[in-house]
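Protein 1 of 2
SEQ + STRUCT:
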Amino acid sequence: MKIFVTGATGLVGAHTTLALLHAGHDVRLLVRNQAAAHSYFLAQGFDLKDFIVTDMLDKEAVKSGMQGCDAVVHMAAIVDLDARNAKRTQATNLQSIDSVIGSACELGIKKILYVSSMSIFYDFTQKMLTENSPLADVKDAYSLSKKLCEIRIRELQAQGKPIITTYPSAVFGPDDPKLAESNYAIVNFFENVLPLTTSGMQFIDARDIAIAHRLLIEGELGEDKTQERYILGGTYTPWADLGGFIEQAAGQKISKVKVPGAIFRLLGVLFDVARIFVPIKFPISKESMRIVTQLPPTTSDKLFAKTGMAFRPVEETLKDTIEWLRKAKHI
């Protein structure tokens, strides 16, 4: 199968591309930096030659690059939490749906996989989140952009377009091309402190996401295209347990401190106010702090029933990720 891929130099995109390559598929990568992409995959044992070097919003170039492809995997997105850039973030991510997903639909490509985010479901009053949970009333620039994209994707699915949507939670994993925000959080735990608060973290291994994406692309679509939606939730881990798992995986102690959830949520409000006056890129906001302290668990049962796969243990993910962070001299 020839597969057109966007976002292949991010953590999820890189592992998804590797899973497709290891399964014998051909890939054509849409990139902005061909040298960096080639270097990464060469280090992983694949001397790739088929690149489309363009912006994902250049619909004419994107559509031309999809010619001859059997499937499309769209993982690229602008991740910007700055409220002042909200309109740009929304416009860019929405336009990418038209450029990439829209082009694939217009060309009649039979398999299209779009990677969304669990953030669109975050309703902190729910006990469990599933694919049938209502879309959340999100405010953060990035989360709102993903919600708007989701609405557009669902419109296309309702028209019978062959689109599969996945919703990853927080993603950890080794062999990270750019040190993703979630992996950087682990670095922060070592350099600073791990806060122990209410709720927990729902995270998944990038390699498990990759397996899920490969199996979904290779599998058969159901007759009802509106049901091709799969949560990739991973393992829900209370913060106190996460600290123990990290120490066990690292073979060393890390600093931990108990912080009431209310303090974190107040901090998020203060950061939101401060952003009105000064640029702050640190990912603390009212919404993100609610996620940290009030996150309900999710279930990936629908994915398991569809693919027969299971996620690897928390200990394995953290051990491999920390070993890679050390090897790459991030910690």
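Protein 2 of 2
SEQ + STRUCT:
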Amino acid sequence: MSPQASDLIEFASDAGFAIDANSRIVAWNKLAERLLGYTSSEAIGQYCRDILQAALPGGEPLCYPGCDISQCFKKCQPYGVPSCRVQHKNGAWIEASIATIAVPEHARRLDSTHVLAVIFIRDSSTLNARPDQQTLQIFSLGSFGLVVAGRSVAIDKWKRKQALTLLKYLLTQLDRPVHRERLIDSLWPGIDQQQGWGRLKVAMYCLRSELRANGIKEDVIKTSDKAYILRRDAVWVDTFAFERLITEGGELQRQGQWNDALCHYNDARLLYRGDYLEEEVFSDWCAEERERFREIYLELLGRTAECHAELGQYAEAVHICRKALVFDPCRESFHCLLMENLVNSGYPGVALAQFRHCQQILDQEFGSEPLAKTRRLYQEILNGEIATGSVNEALTDTAS
């Protein structure tokens, strides 16, 4: 690391660290150790998002793969976060602010670690975010949230809740025109069209006013004849990042790059904070998309468990399988994978008990028996025919 960057970290008055182009920590000062609890040896080499686990006041994640901050660094732009929470090693949350220095490209070439940025953390400080960071970020997996320029948008204070519902609906149809009649029928079913048109105009006016008040240009929602379009190129959406990470991880997995695939999958798991638009429990217009993302998340967990198993990390694979079964207790493929990994972890007795648990759940929920494949696996474990390290089976079975 260059002497100049080292001095900025070592002699700074705030907790500070430096990251490289892959967002891995390459320097960590004593004040950072004091603030967050991690020693230098524990922090260096880790992704900064895994150490900070930072979130905005509204609960939206600040640190995630390809986040706004990292994109600014790559453009050699600093990024200020006036208010956020970072997590101490012991799990406690710390109210903080973040200031940064983006290292110019010519300076990065001066040392072997190629420092991309220097980041400072201070307890409860106020720093102004850059006015040109005005991309609207939409978090829809879990609690719905909007972020602009590193700040949570206080959607709970919006005067008209239908304006927020309207934005959510347009999000489900991102970049596709939604005719006003369809919006009226979905948001106010059974209402007279003229009255519905009046309500829609008020909701749209309120939505655009709220976005404008937070520095978002009005053309983020485009009007086309009698339809509205939420522009894909004007927003960042967590679901797109989520699916992209899984796609890229799948390609790495097919190439046998298990560690790299696992990194992508773990990053995707960070973005899945809960069901898609989870507050809209009774809204039919997002139910199909919610179920689609639940299936994608379960597939993600399956792939994650497979990668752990290929790396011989059977305890981690067991943990992921149990997590998946909490999410969907009737998913028989995960019962199978859990049984195999329990055997590979040295717990065949627990694997047999897992089969009986699977048998009980399927009987209670569907009045059915486990599939032939599951019963065959049980017999092989019972007869001692499963050798340690034999987890190679893909999750190809459908759920019961």
